[in-house]
Design a protein that fits this description.
Layout (H helix, E strand, L loop, with lengths): L4 H25 L2 E7 L6 E9 L6 E10 L9 E7 L5 H4 L9 E7 L6 E9 L4 E8 L9 E7 L4 H13 L1
Antiparallel strand pairs: 1-2, 2-3, 3-4, 5-6, 6-7, 7-8
Length: 171
């Protein structure tokens, strides 16, 4: 069956808005690069610094740094993470997150063609009213599972106050 040129153009024109919306949604999920530091003139490796907001807790911004090895088959596993409160955090936001001991993955990116990923997991420490962010590599490197940890205490936030009020009511 042969499709006419006019029908093919019409189909492409109809799919353009769908593709645009899809691309915008994906870009909202991916981190934004805010820094790029070369590791030297004779290397293909750079330290990338990226920022992203926690998808469920809009008041938390995380910065991650990791080595990107252009032209190599695998990127190194080392990474670092720092997350800070940059806006309001409410109990309503906290009610929507996974509060299990293993938390939930809120970010993942491929680090090699050999099934290695950099992941960031959010865990809620209810006893200390603190959000814990763990970045880690899914593949052991040189006998070590690389990881980094940062915390965002809720002290002084609207969420802290709401949690304290709820605790006082239940007593």
């Amino acid at each position: 069956m042969k499709i006419s040129t006019r029908a093919a153009i019409s189909t492409k024109t109809a799919l353009l808005p769908v593709a645009t919306v899809f691309a915008l949604l994906l870009s909202g999920c991916s981190p934004k690069e805010v820094g790029d530091v070369s590791l030297g003139l004779f290397t293909t490796k750079d330290i990338k610094i990226q920022t992203f907001n926690d998808p469920a807790i809009a008041g938390v911004t995380c910065h991650i740094s990791h080595v990107e090895a252009n032209l190599d088959l695998a990127d190194p596993s080392d990474m670092s993470i720092a997350c800070r409160q940059t806006g309001e955090i409410t109990a309503a936001m906290l009610s929507k997150i996974d509060k299990s001991k293993s938390g939930e993955v809120i970010f993942s990116t491929s680090k090699s063609i050999l099934f290695k990923h950099l992941k960031i997991r959010r865990i809620f420490d209810a006893d200390n009213k603190t959000l814990v962010y763990l970045s880690y590599s899914t593949k052991e490197s040189a006998g070590s599972d690389k990881h980094s940890l940062t915390t965002v205490p809720l002290w002084g936030s609207q969420a802290w106050q709401e949690l304290e009020q709820a605790k006082a009511v239940t007593k």
